[in-house]
Design brief:
Elements lengths: L2 H7 L12 H16 L4 H17 L9 H32 L2 H12 L3 H8 L3
């Protein structure tokens, strides 16, 4: 009789007892906190938030419920993604409101860089 048959005979509902990963729970929590703390930095927050969600999901190990650390990691990861997307969307909409259009934003950027608008457009859209 192997261990899978024993677990079914003993009345347990899951075939993989004790497969939870404390390391993944901790990694999820740490990455979730890092993602929230860096929600203004797009290149850090998005990967850390996504990895926090993935690690929280993987930490279950076949079980149906999350531990408290995994739940916090999942919540922090989702919150960081939502905050980051909200901040960048509101910033873009504020720029559109202030400069009138994307062309106005590009003109302001070209003035800031000291580059002619036509040179900037040629650089952005090569033929």
């Amino acid at each position: 009789m192997d261990m899978y048959e024993q677990s079914y005979q003993s009345g347990q509902n899951h075939p993989y007892p004790g497969k939870r990963s404390a390391g993944m729970e901790t990694a999820s929590l740490v990455l979730g906190v890092l993602a929230i703390l860096s929600c203004t930095c797009l290149y850090v927050s998005i990967p850390c938030g996504a990895l926090a969600i993935i690690f929280a999901s993987l930490s279950r190990g076949g079980m149906m419920s999350y531990t408290s650390r995994a739940q916090l990691g999942m919540i922090f990861g989702i919150l960081a993604l939502v905050l980051t997307i909200t901040i960048y969307t509101l910033t873009f909409l504020l720029m559109l409101h202030q400069y009138g259009s994307i062309e106005g934003i590009l003109k302001a950027y070209s003035d800031l860089q000291g580059m002619d608008y036509n040179e900037l457009m040629q650089e952005l859209m090569p033929k």
